Amino acid sequence: MGGLQGRNEAGKSAAAKVLGESVASLGPGEALAAAQRLAQDAILFFHNPQRVWEQVDVVQGIWNLRDVFKVGGQMLVLVAPAGVTLPVELQNDVMLIDEPLPSAEDLARLVAETFESANLHAPEEATVAKAVGALVGLAAFGGCG
Fold first, then answer.
1. Which residue has the higher pLDDT, 9 or 140?
2. Confidence of residue 143 (pLDDT cuts 50, 70, 90)
3. Structural Rg of the chain based on CA atoms
């Protein structure tokens, strides 16, 4: 919905160069076509591509970036929920990275580390247990701001 947006100064500059004077929002296929003009070493994050990657212009746009990005050192990161199935056109060209959910022990450690980072006293065991119970099933580092 937000189109191409930079998340830091270098990203904002790269997006401005790609978009030029255009203030109109680009659709997913148009954004992928425009991404071919991204600066070297740029990383493009595409959130929830599974919602549109069956569209001909989107799947082709993703595939077209493969060779362009390989030469320029750019990267397209498709951020999708666990369990999605890639379109057959992309299955041999996309590397899947699946981040497993943290264990209860991992979550207890993260809760303790969070208290320590906030300069708080170590939490009681009952507090840790409640926090772990609330966090089970969530990724350790979920979502992007």
1. 9
2. very low
3. 20
Alpha carbons 6 and 55: distance in angstroms, whole number = 25
Give the whole-angstrom CA distance, residue 26 versus residue 120: 46
Give the model's pLDDT for residue 131. Answer: 93
Beta pairing partners, 48: none
pLDDT tens digits for range 14-60: 877 777 766 557 788 988 998 898 888 889 999 999 999 999 999 99
Q: How far is residue 67's CA from residue 37's CA, in Å, rounded to a whole number?
A: 13
Cβ neighbors of 102 (< 8 A, separation 6 or more) are: 110, 139, 140
Question: For the chain, which residues make up each domain, given as ranges?
Answer: 9-79, 99-145
Within 13 A of 135's CA, how many CA atoms are on the CB side?
21
CA distance 57 to 83: 23
